[in-house]
Specification:
The structure is a homodimer of 504-residue chains.
Chain A: E1 4-5, E2 13-16, E3 41-43, E4 52-55, E5 58-63, E6 72-73, E7 78-79, E8 107-110, E9 124-129, H1 135-149, E10 158-162, H2 178-188, E11 199-201, E12 223-225, H3 232-251, E13 256-259, E14 264-269, H4 280-293, E15 297-300, H5 303-306, H6 310-314, H7 320-339, H8 350-354, H9 360-368, E16 376-380, E17 391-394, H10 400-410, E18 414-419, E19 432-436, H11 439-444, E20 451-452, H12 455-458, H13 463-478, H14 485-489
Parallel strand pairs in A: 9-10, 9-11, 11-12, 14-15, 14-18, 15-17, 16-17, 18-19, 19-20
Antiparallel strand pairs in A: 1-2, 2-3, 3-6, 4-5, 5-7, 8-13
Helix pairs in contact in A: 1-3, 2-10, 4-13
């Protein structure tokens, strides 16, 4: 199968590692009947119309017409199978999970937090907003703080405004408003922010400070209300002064050696291609298993991209409750899409298809590879904080910037991001490690990709080797020993909170 | 009625101009039965349970219990009347509209555009994005362009990145996706951007460049695809180089004397109180009538805040078609809110209520005052561009930052913004003139409020005088002779596009 990757012995298609010319013949007697672009599928045998097309040992769909051995199998040739029925999923306790590799490390250098919970990988002052209205003033203040005040507090890594499009002109009591409100509330508690609360409010917005702050925090030490201040200079003065008092305390934080059970990281993929599921995501899955075995907490997400493989995740849930919550989140999202009169076929993207991903089933199988093989100990609603430690499904949209924001709300302090097509995505509040699914991307974007997993497909490396390399890089990045590219260059996306409720 | 404002002779409530103490008596025999906060309503006569409570000559609601003359009438005492039925609205041709005042000016100094249409009030390079993924890189490039390149082109006012949360991880073919896509497409054509097209794309997003660009514009002179470039420096280099070629051309633009028919401005209110509808919004309405009479185009918006007064707007529509489009937009929004399981009672905000606005009917009556008395020549779907000139209803959410973004997409080159409670709102792509509804706000925020209309309530000024003053200020701001506060200080909100379709 030189030139092609077949993942599972049951597969009747394989994926081209490079562009394949028409009439190229392969060891096992398959001959390409047309040019086949890199990342796309070839039929390994004749497949009759209506018969299953199998990759990862799973039915991706049914042949829309007779397909001959050696033909290029693209998205027009597959009919989608029915969506897995979430009302009849089974779980197993997975008591026997044993990952046969030993984590090379069980500690990292992190910032312990005063209230306990997960530790930080960075030391950041976050300034939260109740409403977009204040963003213009806050941005001016943050520029000044970064220039004039932050340099006096060298142990603090950054000042990050949490600007968002929520807070007013929204149906604040709509059932789904719970999601954006919880996200803003929980974002403040991200372990990278050291337990310091600082909120800039307007004064007449719907998202009043008491909706996101407990009584003990909702006071003048933590909350600035612009409508109570006399003009712009007073506003900037008040924001700067409060920021300085918080920076002083944050500056006292020191890294210490902590068990990996205090580390919470997220995994995400974006701009995927058909290599993602055979290289980068498998390497992340291996690293994830190592991390979980070492006691760390690992979040994976993206409802629409796991939806078609959810029955496989259900089998990995540790209890009926976790399985039920997982099913509830899927059902919620099914309804949400239906209200908008769309369905899961809205995914994959044109870029995914160009990269060889024919449909959402194929994308889902590649996507869940990131979660490795560990038992799933918890399922979270969008932006919820975990109560358990280990591998956790955090329900978020698959949109990169929304998933990133919502995982930050759930408390990740570092994210591993796999990409096939390439995206310069980054987060201001946590380092993002970029893993490429193919070597050609690493070659083009050598300064933006931290780890190349493309060598898994060519045989130069292996899932195990790359997984180990990634594990090591994660620990070093979490410990502040290396800065991933996006962090080094200051590439950060906006905070994009998931708001499924109406705006008014 | 010293101390109170009664708007219409049919009204059975009046509004306190200042905080009123219990037992204060007024000329016409009304005596306050409790302290009444400024901006709140007092009953001018006994009102029986179930009887209408009338302000602006319109029923705001029905008394929830017997209310005695002199009582404070707050939101708990009103029951909402039924929503106006948009299926049975009547329009009148309004052929006889004649506003009995003469515009003191019929020209302004603007930037004519190569493709015709409205003229610019500013000369700005906009860099549009197809997707949020590129925002991190674009922001780095824009910082560099502002520092190193823009100073060489002194006739250009600013470089503005059009970053937004749309573009991927969205249901791009959902019926409602037409709204955000149109908004991004039309934003690029804002007259302040001088007809220069510059788009930064990623390469695998759902919002491909051809969805927002015509064939003639979709080429390498206008579109940069990050996935085609070799790393961050190449990306920043390519963006800087394209920006410079656009800046060179924009730098040739010169202001010239143009008829007001080439001016398109927007009106909006935010952080309203019950003074908004008796001071600031009436002054804007007067200025709007002057502008429309002089040939200008004036957009007003905010569906949820006109919904309960829409039958009054319908009567001002110039044709059955305009009336029907207006009704269609209301119906669309009714459905949208219903899908989210909320209704119009989600508005007003806590701040509005604190300011004395009891319900959405009272808010709507104050809100539509901004539109003056002119005939309504067109109704636009969210983000649509006008085809006619004159007074136009542009359907947008009432959310300040979303309304501002969507009015920019419809082509406004300046916005008049009234506020009672106060907001530091601003737009990067067009000057925003802030008009306060009460003098105390102007006193507190003297550097942020451009015009104080509060003096209308105290009798120191009048609607006509303030309207004239505002008209003059609008022309001078449009002509670049004055910079409103938000522009002067660089206070700008984010681009917040209205996306009612699901994200995936």
């Amino acid at each position: 199968m030189d030139g092609f990757v077949k993942v599972n012995s049951a597969d009747n298609v394989a994926v081209a590692i490079n562009d394949i010319e028409k009439e190229t013949a392969f060891l096992d007697g398959v001959c390409a009947r047309s040019d086949i672009p890199r990342g796309h599928k070839i039929a390994l045998e004749d497949i009759s119309a209506g018969a299953p097309i199998i990759r990862y040992g799973t039915t991706l769909g049914y042949a829309a017409r007779n397909i001959r051995k050696g033909e290029w199998v693209n998205e027009s040739m597959l009919k989608l199978p029915p969506t897995p029925d979430v009302t009849r999923m089974t779980f197993s306790a997975m008591a026997g999970w044993d990952f046969p590799h030993t984590p090379p490390k069980t500690t990292f250098e992190g910032y312990r937090n005063p209230k306990g919970g997960f530790a930080g990988t960075r030391n950041i002052l976050a300034i939260t907003t109740t409403v977009q209205c204040v963003a213009g003033v806050l941005n001016i203040a943050v520029d000044r703080i970064r220039r004039e005040i932050l340099p006096r507090y060298p142990n603090v890594d950054a000042v990050v405004p949490i600007n968002h499009a929520y807070g007013c002109g929204v149906a604040i009591d709509a059932p789904d408003a719970a999601i954006p409100i919880r996200a803003i509330k929980n974002l403040m508690d991200n372990p990278n922010f050291g337990g310091e609360i600082m909120v800039v409010a307007l004064g007449c917005e719907k998202l009043t400070a008491d909706r996101i702050l407990g009584e003990e925090d909702n006071n003048r030490d933590n909350v600035i209300v612009l409508q109570e201040l006399e003009g712009l200079e007073a506003m900037i003065g008040a924001i700067s002064k409060m920021a300085e008092s918080k920076l002083k305390r944050l500056n006292e934080r020191k890294r210490e050696t902590l068990p990996l059970s205090e580390l919470c990281i997220g995994a995400q993929c974006g701009g995927s291609d058909s290599f993602s599921g055979i290289t980068a995501n498998l390497a992340v899955g291996f690293a994830s298993d190592l991390l979980v075995k070492a006691g760390a907490t690992m979040l994976f997400s993206e409802v629409t991209e796991v939806r078609d493989a959810v029955h496989i995740l259900a089998e990995r849930c540790v209890s009926r409750e976790v399985c039920k919550k997982l099913a509830d989140e899927m059902r919620w999202y099914d309804d949400y899409l239906e209200k908008g009169r769309v369905d899961r076929s809205a995914n994959p993207t044109p870029g995914n298809k160009k990269g060889g991903l024919s449909n959402i089933v194929e994308k889902a199988m590649g996507s869940i590879a990131k979660s490795g093989t560990a038992p799933i100990v918890e399922a979270l609603s969008p932006g919820e904080k975990p109560e358990r430690r280990g591998l956790i499904f955090a329900a978020t949209p698959a949109s990169d910037f929304v998933c990133g924001t919502m995982q930050l709300a759930s408390g990740i302090t570092l994210q591993v991001f796999t990409t096939g097509r390439g995206t310069p995505y980054g987060l201001a509040a946590a380092p993002v490690i970029k893993v490429s699914s193919r070597t050609s991307l690493k070659r083009t974007w050598k300064d933006l990709i931290d780890i190349d997993a493309g060598t898994i497909a060519t045989g130069e490396s292996s899932i195990e080797k790359k997984g180990m390399e990634l594990f090591d890089y994660i620990i070093r990045a979490a410990s502040g020993e290396v800065m991933p590219a996006a962090e080094k260059y200051g590439i950060a996306n906006d905070i994009c909170i998931f708001n499924p409720a109406p705006i008014t």
